[in-house]
From TrEMBL, chain A:
Coiled coil: none
Residue sites binding [4Fe-4S] cluster 2 per the record: C35, C154, C157, C169
Record's keyword annotation contains Iron-sulfur: yes
Name of this chain's protein: 4Fe-4S dicluster domain-containing protein
Top-rank lineage group of the source organism: Bacteria
UniProtKB/TrEMBL annotation, chain B:
Main location: membrane
Alphabetized InterPro entries for the sequence: Electron_transfer_protein, NrfD-like
GO cellular component terms listed in the entry, alphabetical order: plasma membrane
Database matches in Gene3D superfamilies: Formate dehydrogenase/DMSO reductase domain (1.20.1630.10)
Transmembrane segments: 30-50, 102-126, 133-157, 169-190
Similarity annotation: Belongs to the NrfD family.
Compartment(s): Cell membrane
Name this protein carries in UniProt: NrfD/PsrC family molybdoenzyme membrane anchor subunit
Domain of life: Bacteria
Organism: Sinomonas puerhi
Pfam families linked: NrfD (PF03916)
Protein keywords: Cell membrane, Membrane, Transmembrane, Transmembrane helix
Leader sequence residues: none
Membrane topology note: Multi-pass membrane protein
Length: 272, 312
């Protein structure tokens, strides 16, 4: 058995997922808006501007379940008399719905659970706001809503999935950059798209979270990126730390035994 | 000094923003809890030894310390929840994959035992049952003092996870130091030799093991030297060493030296937990601690794959 909780149980129906093809993203943020509206996520009322790019939501969090990243890259001109060009990279990030989900593993109340679609969802009436999942997530996705105390993240629109609908972000995406469907089929589609981009000379194109052998057992929401993951604020090689948990429990047992043995020693021959 | 220290790494990030979320935990609640839990657990072990070697003064002070510390730590734990009124949800499941769930069950076994043995001792009732509870508190106390290392290490927080092999031993020795120190400060000197030994031995192990973590060579270990964490850990060593030396030289002859030195060792133990806590937080704020080691891991794996191919 997997060291993580149940890993991916047989769910009876094909596992659902997202394939976000960032080569098609135009940075319109329709996904962010549709997600906020459908899931009734509180607005970020601070209305701050980052001043760095068109990205003013900055990162995924308790109140941002889709986040569009903007990266401006210089493309050096090949002709010395011409100006350098500019290339835009845009990517809509989301909870990865990991196969081995650290948040779900460490949740002490069982508030986080694996749905019948293979996604990971928080039961808001059970979460007691301990915050353990926040530190466990290797992607920095889930977070606490300070004024509420509980944690929130993408549910892949659990309510819509149950009704046979696609998630709000995928529905709203005007370029099919966000694709929803059966994970196996999405993986095939992604492989074909990657091959196509490589043939066109997009050498940086790569799939992220596609590999079921990676540190989290593959992501339920995976991506086609045009540059290295860290450029988009994604960890290049995330692992689920519960993988090391049996070893850690053994070390803790060893430490506890040493503590007891040490305590026995301090009484040995002690004078009164 | 760590070979990594001061090395500048080239890495890419998204506008320098953190990849990980900073822990939502408050230092006073969680680092405080880890210290108090360690103090309680190791005090119960000391009390169990005292009750079977006929040291009633040491026994009573250690049992009362354990009860006070575990009560404070449970309050801190509940206070740190985003929804404190739902703390009992911790007990709706038992999950070995969640150190916090395991810890909740350890605490619910330990707390009543520590309370019962302290109550029996102070009230002078049920002496045999009280002593049996004392043994139980000592055994479960060893788990209370060490599981907190797994609690921190089983996270994506670079400094905490990178230390996962040594952290239980750091916390166990630090727990011993604090319990021994406090008992040396509170118990009658004539009965206090085991407490002083525990404080000195715990302090020596605490220093050696925490220095080993600081010099592990992991990139994240530099957070243990810098900023607020660095200050806390340097202070911790000063208190721990000073207190241990004081106990060794004058702990047996002087009430004042024994009290002050014992308290210093306990303070050093508390500072250690706050230092490790702050270092972990710092390691989530800089994407360097995520990107650079993961890049190195990927490169090593690719190299191994290429090597395997050419060996073919």
């Amino acid at each position: 058995m997997s060291t993580t909780q149940l890993g991916m149980p047989t769910i009876g129906v094909p596992r659902k997922g997202f394939f976000t093809d960032t080569s098609l993203c135009i940075g319109c943020k329709a996904c962010e808006v549709a997600c906020k509206e459908w899931n009734q996520i509180p607005a970020d009322t601070s209305l701050k501007l980052t001043g760095e790019s068109f990205d003013n939501t900055s990162s995924l969090g308790a109140d941002t379940w889709r986040h569009v990243a903007f990266i401006e890259q210089k493309v050096p001109a090949t002709d010395p008399s011409a100006h350098d060009g500019v290339k835009w990279l845009m990517s809509s990030d989301v909870c990865k719905h990991c196969t081995h989900a650290a948040c779900l593993d460490v949740c002490p109340t069982g508030a986080l659970f694996r749905t019948e679609h293979g996604t990971v969802v928080v039961q808001q009436d059970v979460c007691n706001g301990c915050g353990y999942c926040v530190s466990a997530c290797p992607y920095g996705v889930i977070d606490q809503r300070k004024e509420d105390g509980r944690v929130f993240k993408c549910t892949m629109c659990y309510d819509r999935l149950g009704a046979g609908e696609e998630p709000a972000c995928a529905k709203a995406c005007p370029t099919k950059s966000i694709q929803y469907g059966e994970l196996d089929e999405l993986r095939e589609r992604a492989d074909a798209r990657l091959e196509e981009l490589h043939e066109r000379g997009e050498e940086g194109a790569q799939l992220y979270g596609r590999d079921p052998e990676d540190g989290v057992g593959g992501d339920g929401a995976f991506f086609l990126l045009l540059d290295e993951p860290e450029t988009y604020g994604l960890p290049p090689d995330p692992i689920v730390t519960t993988r090391d948990l049996p070893a850690m429990w053994k070390r803790a047992a060893g430490a506890a035994a040493s503590l007891l043995a040490g305590a026995a020693l301090v009484f040995w021959g002690a004078r009164k | 000094m760590s070979p990594r220290r001061g090395r500048t790494e080239e890495f890419t990030s998204y506008y320098g923003r953190p990849i990980l979320k900073e822990p939502t935990w408050q230092a006073l609640d969680i680092a405080g809890y880890i210290f108090a839990g360690g103090l309680a657990g190791a005090s119960s072990i000391l009390a169990a030894g005292a009750q079977h070697t006929d040291r009633p003064g040491l026994e009573r002070s250690a049992k009362l310390t354990a009860l006070a510390a575990i009560s404070a730590s449970v309050v801190a734990l509940v206070h740190d929840l985003g929804r404190p009124e739902r703390f009992v949800n911790m007990l709706r499941v038992a999950k070995p994959t969640s150190p916090m769930s395991v810890g909740s069950w350890i605490l619910s076994a330990y707390g009543p035992l520590a309370g019962a043995t302290a109550a029996a001792n102070v009230l002078g009732i049920f002496p045999r049952a009280g002593k049996a509870a004392g043994i139980g508190a000592g055994i479960t106390g060893s788990a209370v003092a060490t599981y907190t290392a797994v609690l921190l290490a089983d996270t994506a927080v670079p400094t905490w996870h990178d230390a996962h092999e040594r952290l239980p031993f750091v916390f166990a020795s630090s727990a011993a130091a604090s319990a021994g120190g406090l008992a040396a400060a509170l118990a009658p000197i004539a009965q206090g030799q085991p407490a002083r030994r525990m404080a000195i031995g715990g302090a020596a192990a605490e220093i050696a093991l925490s220095v080993a973590v600081e010099r592990s060579g992991n990139l994240s270990a530099e957070t243990l030297h810098e900023g607020r964490a660095g200050v806390l850990l340097r202070l911790s060593k000063a208190f721990t060493v000073g207190g241990a030396v004081g106990l060794a030289l004058g702990g047996r002859s002087s009430r004042g030296v024994s009290t002050l030195s014992g308290l210093a060792v306990a303070a050093g133990s508390a500072l250690l937990r706050f230092g490790f806590f702050e270092a972990g937080r710092a390691s989530t704020r800089d994407p360097k601690y995520v990107v650079v080691p993961q890049r190195e891991r990927l490169a090593a794996r690719q190299e191994a794959a290429v090597g395997a191919d050419t060996m073919g």
